[in-house]
Each structure stands twice: as structure tokens, then as C-alpha cells.
Design goal:
The protein has 145 residues and is α/β, with parallel strands linked by helices. It has one domain (2-136): Ribose 5-phosphate Isomerase B, Chain: A (3-Layer(aba) Sandwich), CATH 3.40.1400.10. Helices cover 43% and strands 16% of the residues. It contains 6 helices and 5 strands; from the N terminus they run E-H-E-H-E-H-E-H-E-H-H. A 5-stranded parallel β-sheet has the order 2-1-3-5-4, with helices on both faces. Helix 1 (12-23) links the parallel strand 1 (2-7) and strand 2. Helix 2 crosses helix 3 and helix 4 (87-95) packs parallel to helix 5.
Length: 145
Amino acid sequence: MKVVLGCDHAAFEGKEELKKYLTEKYEVIDEGTLSADRCDYPDYATKVVKTVLEQKIPGILLCGSGIGVSIVANRYKGIRAALIRTPEEARLSRQHNDANVLCVGARINSAEEIRAIVDAWFEAEFEGGRHSDRLGKFADLGEVV
């Protein structure tokens, strides 16, 4: 399975650590940033979103808080980005919301916590049923990439 990653400068080190961890299990596409030099999170969130939509693969976005990248990602039709702080939230975001982009804060969660969040996210599956009905209510909202 493939997964796409992206981050800003505040989360560069966290993304690099996570990439090493994920490479053991998945094919990882790194959309940047490729250094800790100052950059703008909307640019990298947009790159990840486009890859998620084009390749129909999950995406993971990191920034200092996770808030900025989640706001950007959720502007796009077809993206269900979830800002996650705990493994339980990660499971629920997949089970109930069919989240296709996971957003985390590298300044909020430790590398160990982020790995646990990512593992829980990948282990969970969408439950469908009543949750599908709810997702259908906003499936056509947002901007098309």
C-alpha cells in the first residue's frame, strides 16, 4: 500500500522520523518539505491532497499544531482530513468518518505518540452504515482540485 506524506518546516524532523517508520510497512511518497527551512504549510497540504485524490491513497500531514494543514486539506472536495491527538481519535476518524487524510501536530505529540496514532489509523476500517449516510450529506461540498 502507498501513503503520501507532507509537512511544513515546523514538522520536518517529525516527518522524517515518521517516514523511516512507515517505510518498513508501506511505499511512502514524500511531497515535502525537504528541509527545515521556513516554508508555507498550505503549499505542502495541497500537494498531499492532490496526490490523495489522484492516486486514491491515504495521506498524512504534519505541521506544528496540525491545525493549519487540516484546515487547508478540508477545503478540497473528496478530502476528509482529521486532526488527531490520540489513537482513539484516529480509530474513530476512520471508523465513523472514513478519514482519508490524517493530520497531526509535531509540536503537540511526540514521535512515539504519532507512531501510535498512525498505527491505530491504519488498523481501523470504515464501518459504513449510518456513517455512510452522514458522509453523503457533505460529499459534494468544497473545492475541486
